[in-house]
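pasting for the record
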Amino acid sequence: MWNPIVKIRTGWHSVVSELKKCTWPTVPELRESTVVVVMTVVILTAWVALADQVCGHLVRLITTTK
């Protein structure tokens, strides 16, 4: 019969040992990456909003009867 506590402990120790192998970013690297991510999100948001507006106008132009 297997013991769930032993399985959890073994899994926890393996997670901790893997995390010790990781190289963590420095504060300047983290700031730079954050700026890149935020700018990318802003640009993509603007692009999607513009595409939505253009498509909406095209649909209204095509479906509007005079």
